[in-house]
Amino acid sequence: MTTVYAREDYLAADDYIDIVRKSGLNRPIADRGRIERMLAHANLIVTARQDGRLVGFARSLTDFCYCCYLSDLAVDKACQGQGIGKRLIEETRTQAGGALTTTLLLAAPTAVSFYDRIEMPRADNCFLYRRER
To answer: What are the tens digits of pLDDT across the range 8-56?
Structure first.
């Protein structure tokens, strides 16, 4: 099956919620208003579709020339293992400015092994304030 990757200007909340649910990613999908705000303020969304059906996405915030925060990477569990997540990261990096741009993501504990497996470089100089909810 062919997977088509594309930058999309808009991702519907229903599509986001569906893939997050199917991927196992932990996001506040019960709070639709918050999801809608998250999507409205993201400025880079890369999708993966098979026969037109959304199977994965990467949602980011970027200035397209220096930094990119890849906030969400989600792939339907039925499609995992096909290289879709890795390709979504590659497409995000390209769209965000390529080698000129640092791409940062914070891995969910259950996803660390995936990022190690695709040999995404680790950072040891990250600091953060965790959200309270």
So the answer is: 999 999 999 999 999 999 999 999 999 999 999 999 999 999 999 999 9
Give burial (CB, 10 Å; 0-12/13-18/19+) of 102: middle
Phi, psi of 57 (to 5 degrees): -155, 160
Identify the CA nearest to 38 among candidates 23, 60, 9: 60
**What residues pair up with 45 in beta bridges, in sequence order?**
8, 59
Classify residue 16 by burial, with Cβ atoms within 10 Å: 0-12, 13-18, 19+: buried
Q: Tell which CATH architecture fits domain 3-117.
A: 3-Layer(aba) Sandwich (3.40)
* pLDDT band with cut points at 50, 70 and 90 for residue 110: confident
Distance from C-alpha of 21 to C-alpha of 31, rounded to nearest angstrom:
13
